[in-house]
Specification:
There is one protein chain. Helices cover 44% and strands 15% of the residues. It has helices at 7-18, 35-42, 59-72, 83-95, 110-113, 120-130, 147-155, 176-185, 192-202, 206-209, 218-226, 236-244, 249-260, 267-274, 280-291, 315-324, 334-338, 342-357, 360-366, 418-435, 466-469, and strands at 23-29, 49-52, 103-108, 138-144, 167-171, 265-266, 295-298, 309-312, 376-380, 390-396, 401-408, 440-447, 460-464. The chain starts with 6 loop residues before the first helix and ends with a helix. The chain is an alpha/beta fold. The longest helix has 18 residues, at 418-435. It has three domains: 7-171, P-loop containing nucleotide triphosphate hydrolases (Rossmann fold); 183-355, Winged helix-like DNA-binding domain superfamily/Winged helix DNA-binding domain (Arc Repressor Mutant, subunit A); 359-469, Trna Endonuclease, Chain: A, domain 1 (3-Layer(aba) Sandwich), CATH 3.40.1350. Helix 3 (59-72) packs parallel to helix 4, helix 7 packs across helix 15 (280-291) and helix 9 crosses helix 16 (315-324). The strands form three sheets. It has a five-stranded parallel β-sheet with strand order 2-3-4-1-5, sandwiched between helices.
Length: 471
């Protein structure tokens, strides 16, 4: 099958394969984002060795699974009794291989092998340091959905694996453009507006996009996949968290609290909201959620470190927490009835803002400033009466201009009225006064179908639409 998108990742994989030195590549990213698929398809599953960890299995079961993989690739001896034996056996197996050129070893869901007191990392350390690191004909690829484990135990390892990872690859969700390519490749005909609707629910997660059926409308697909007692994604949120974290209750609790504060929540507010102690345990959970791609941590310009905000950025989690936690959602056709409600309008507006935040590269390109140094951040007014003085996307360019970007989701052209124009002028005035910037301030509107020309639309200098997010 053709790999959709992932052009930079494919170029990198080819580079590592052609390398004249041993390579230790760590691949990580959100669960369901397509890590395993990319590696298997790129190498056409032609591995010198392949194994995958088992979710929630014992050390004995993990070793047995690894042993079966060894035998599948030609090993005929007894099952290893420890991870030191297992990796020593893998070394012997690879040494006996008559394969010409680079040998690719792929161990998937690596973190699941690391059961308590199993000695797995010791075995891995032994394998790489004592043998593999001196073999220029080896490309050793490890992959995992528990990004926090991959980062902390491998990339940031301070023990025997310190600085041993030679390459790292974080696989991000598809962009809108890659989703469009995916649907075309699978002969699913959708307009860009319909693709946007799907993205607001499923994000750019290939696993979910693969479930979308040709011939069904957006509403019908969402109903079929998410609503009704037998819908395949009805319990996806809980299943993903259960797979990623040994005790997911605290992770879920924190995500729910962050989701209730759409624009972001401080750590202090999070402690008050959840009752969770403000200590190392909370720090660990927040870091794990961030590294697994569910939340982002950002610092609004002009604010103190303690005012750092946490915001939910995973589209499906946001959708689930808004609509799938309601018992009424068990009824068939729920989305068809609910998709014109006030709650839908609030959710869709925020989801569209999330899309814009994840497509800053495309926004800058459409503004013609792709080559301009332009830090991107958020800003909130410090004034207690700063009504509406909040900007979620500020593009602070080094060419003397700052873009204050406003994202508005609408089924038609967005119309600026007198009240909204006043709010925009207040934002400009507050931003200029509090940041003391000398730069020109441009209002940039990012909407679905553009800004309607009227008496008040002149305040807008840049008007981006759906097509610009697909660039």
């Amino acid at each position: 099958m053709k790999i959709v998108g992932r052009e930079q990742e494919q170029e990198a994989l080819q580079k590592y394969y052609d390398s004249q030195r041993p390579e230790f590549l760590t691949v990580y990213g959100r669960m369901r984002v397509g890590k395993t698929y990319l590696i298997k398809e790129f190498f056409r599953s032609d591995f010198s060795f392949y194994a995958t960890g088992l979710a929630n299995a014992s050390m004995k079961e993990q070793l047995k699974s690894f042993s079966l993989s060894l035998k599948k690739h030609g090993y005929q001896g007894k099952d290893p009794a420890s991870w030191l034996e297992a990796f020593s056996t893998l070394q012997t197996l690879l040494e006996s291989s008559n394969r010409v050129g680079k040998k690719v070893i792929f161990i998937d869901e690596l973190s699941w092998f690391d059961t308590p007191r199993s000695g797995f990392l010791t075995g891995l350390e032994f394998f790489w340091n004592s043998w593999a690191s001196s073999r220029p004909d080896l490309l050793f690829i490890v992959c995992g959905s528990i990004s926090s484990w991959m980062i902390n135990k491998l990339i940031k390892n301070h023990g025997g694996l310190y600085n041993r990872v030679t390459q790292r690859m974080k696989l991000e969700p598809f962009t809108l453009s890659e989703c469009e390519e995916y649907f075309k490749t699978n002969n699913i005909v959708l307009s860009r507006y319909q693709i946007l609707e799907h993205y607001m629910v499923f994000g750019g997660i290939p696993y979910y996009l693969n479930m979308i059926e040709r011939g069904l409308s957006t509403t019908q697909n969402i109903d079929a996949l998410c609503f009704g007692s037998t819908a395949p994604l009805r319990k996806e949120f809980n299943e993903v968290f259960a797979s990623l974290f040994k005790d997911p209750r605290r992770h879920e609790q924190i995500v729910r609290a962050i989701a209730r504060a759409a624009k972001g929540i401080t750590r202090e507010q999070l402690v008050k909201s959840t009752g969770i102690a403000n200590g190392g345990s909370l720090t660990m959970v927040l870091e794990e959620l961030e590294q697994c791609g569910f939340i982002r941590k950002y610092h609004a310009v002009g604010k103190k470190r303690k005012d750092t905000l946490y915001q939910l950025i995973d589209h499906f989690s946001n959708f689930h927490l808004n609509f799938l936690t309601d018992n009424k959602s068990d009824e068939d056709g729920y989305w068809s009835k609910y998709s014109n409600s006030p709650a839908y309008n609030a959710w869709s507006g925020y989801s569209f803002e999330m899309i814009c935040l994840s497509h800053v590269k495309q926004i800058k390109q459409s503004l013609g400033i792709a080559g301009v140094i332009a830090p991107v951040y958020s800003w909130r007014s410090s004034a207690q009466d700063g009504i509406g003085a909040q900007v979620d996307l500020v593009i602070d360019r080094n060419d003397g201009i700052t873009n204050l970007c406003e994202a508005k989701y609408s089924i038609e052209e967005f119309s600026i009225d007198k009240e909204y124009e006043t709010r925009l002028r207040n934002k400009i005035a507050s931003y200029r006064a509090e940041t003391r910037t000398k730069k020109a301030i441009h209002i940039t509107m990012i909407t679905t179908y553009g800004v309607r020309k009227n008496t008040y639309s002149g305040i807008v200098q840049s008007d981006l639409v759906i097509a610009d997010l697909f660039s």
